[in-house]
Amino acid sequence: MIRACILMALTLLPFSAPGARAVGLEVPIAGGKFESVLPPSPKEKAADVPPFRLDVALVSNADFARFVRKHPDWRRDQVAGLFADEGYLRQWSSPTEPGSGIEKQPVTQVSWFAASAYCEARGARLPRWHEWELAAAASTRVPDARNDPEWRQQILDWYATSARGVLPAAGASPANYFGVRDLHGVVWEWVEDAGSMLVSDDSREQGDPNRNRFCGSGAIDLEQKENYAMLMRIAMLSSMKASYSSNSMGFRCASDAKAPR
Amino acid sequence: MFRTKVAVLMTAAALLTGCGASDKPTAAAPATVTTGGSLKGDFGPPQGEPVHAVLTSPPEVPPATGRHAPAKVIVELEVVEVDKQIAEGVTYTFWTFGGTVPGSFIRVRQGDTVEFHLKNHPGSKMPHNIDLHGVTGPGGGAASSFTAPGHQSKFTFKALNQGLYVYHCATAPVGMHVANGMYGLILIEPPEGMPAVDKEFYVMQGDFYTVGKYREKGHQAFDMQKAIDENATYVLFNGAESALTGPHALKATTGQHIRMYVGNGGPNLVSSFHLIGEIFDKVQYEGGTHFQENVQTTLIPAGGAATVEFHTEVPGNYVLVDHSIFRAFNKGAVAILEVSGEARADIYSGKQGDEVYLSDKTSNTAAVETAALASASGTLTKEQQVKAGEVLFKGTCSACHQDTGAGIPNVFPPLAKSDYLLADKKRAIGIALNGLSGPVTVNGSTFNSVMPPMSQLNDDEIANILTFALNSWGNDGGVVTAKEVTQVRSSTKRAEGAAH
């Protein structure tokens, strides 16, 4: 009942002023030391994830339509080609309307630039990979279910279905341990640092002597090879440039826990 | 190339040790039999207008390139994720090159410059790429072709080595992409082309891992743990159990030269490829320029291929299997080649006889033959029936009911003076045909065991056996005719598991 109210609030929220985020749309997550499939550097195993807040649900078509009407620069017929490819919001019935039947569904066919602009307009940002991965490691019962074969299989089951079916409404899946929904089994999600995941385009090249050609965080090998479910997320993100869109790529927003409210 | 050198050195060593005396190596000559590999595969820049490669879905093979000079060849391959039937009533989400498993067959000529366009369908959930084993260059094209859904990428390579090569997706997790069907074959023809044959086919084996058991109905998801354990649920030719059987069987006629381009996509299993009832006249392993002759079963590694050739002589159905044989009959690795044409009894006769084999029970089958002839001519006597029945009884029935007809107490009921047998002739025929299980009371004793159906015996034989039983061991006579057996047989369904 309470959750249903939250969802309604989400769909009615205007995007007028930064900082006008409604309490309850996001949940606070404590963060902490987290062993990612993508370690922060060759020497550090665990990433330090500061406390953050994460949207409970994915951004829906209706949410994004309100944003586009407010910021016409992001209409599909007005967006700069640099920021979005030809697929951008192509599934909508018009530049400002998603069309009937898909309002409540997660918005897809959005570029990283557009997703970032949406969150920024809300006074938020896209979640960082480590934040997303930490939140997504939870099952409905425990904060870190990554070693639970059932958790993994559920995710793999989604990968084993084609992307042509109708998406469920945003926020329709059960809340996980942190109270976050839709992290698995709905769409891929943009993350703020998608562009700096310097994973080789050929995943078999790990241990390549050329890896030092990358500066900084590039020279990282993927960890947890058995955690296929997460590695596939990284493969997908690394195949996407920031202007690309895909009918299975959506997003949600996050913010720093200490940000002024 | 390297392998060729090793072979030459080995030959040299053999000569040296064999002849003993020579100081200088005399093995320079065999080197001329090599084609020179990639070092001699560059025939210069492409000539003429660019050519679009003809791609075919399995089991079809594109026509020969027919080119005598290097060309620029444009290959456009689309990656599509599709739900398709993997077995009767079972669907699976395949990731494919060109909509089929295996992917489209690509045919170019050695020395061609191939401009490769990989398109990832907008409906795809995954990014994909392609590693062609026929490419010389890091990753075989993998990094250069990494493509997000709804995008396409392009790279160019020169086909330096001739041969038959596997291509596959190499996106993480590589094993899963391959297990979902992302593989196919590219043929790089030698400069002079492939020798002409009457028919060419494209067959590729792959292993599949589903959460549900073999043939468990419904949509089945990929099972990562089974894949890691190399515990295949299905092993298939061309991506489905019925891909090459029934109406989809490969078809040929007698007197044809057949060539099959056979690949193995894996991801895990190595194939013991065999064609039941044929012998491969020629097998060229991988892209090899040398062939082996008279091969019964050839090993095709995961990520490898072989070209097999044979000539059809005798009509009939020939079965392609992975001769790691449980895969064939319990995991689906079966395909059919249907050969039509005139019978060739001089080469293969077909079944020429099926006679009673009596093992250690030495008996004269003449009585059986006499009775069969008499029955056919309508002159069969009761005595002939009894004599024939005795022989047949010894071969078929006496192991349990004993030569004396006394059976074995508490285990096998007696036939001698058996109230159960003598009470109902029709029932006796039915039992002989269909067997009997469960408790019966014979001469006051209860027996509870199983008699298998004897429906493999013909009506004459059953009539003779029963007539023998009715007139032996003090039983009071009676005759069972073949006609009576025919009637009972036609009114009962053939029992399952009938003895053979």
Walk me through what this model shows.
The complex is a heterodimer of chains A (261) and B (500). Chain A has helices spanning 2-12, 61-70, 112-121, 129-136, 149-159, 228-239, and strands at 26-29, 32-35, 46-49, 52-55, 188-189, 249-250, 254-256. Chain A has 261 residues and is of the alpha+beta class. Chain A has a single domain (2-256), classed as Alpha-Beta Complex (paralog of FGE (formylglycine-generating enzyme)). In chain A, the strands form three sheets. In chain A, strands 1-4-7 form a three-stranded antiparallel β-sheet, covered by helices on one side. Chain A has a two-stranded antiparallel sheet with strand order 2-3. Chain B is of the alpha/beta class and 500 residues long. Helices cover 20% and strands 30% of the residues of chain B. Chain B is built from eleven helices and 23 strands. Chain B has helices at 2-19, 174-179, 224-228, 326-330, 366-377, 382-396, 398-401, 419-423, 425-434, 459-470, 482-491, and strands at 51-52, 72-87, 90-97, 106-109, 113-120, 131-132, 151-158, 163-168, 183-189, 199-208, 218-220, 234-237, 250-253, 257-266, 271-276, 280-285, 292-295, 297-300, 304-311, 316-322, 334-340, 436-442, 445-451. In chain B, strand 22 (436-442) and strand 23 (445-451) form a beta hairpin. The interface between A and B is large, with 37 and 38 residues.
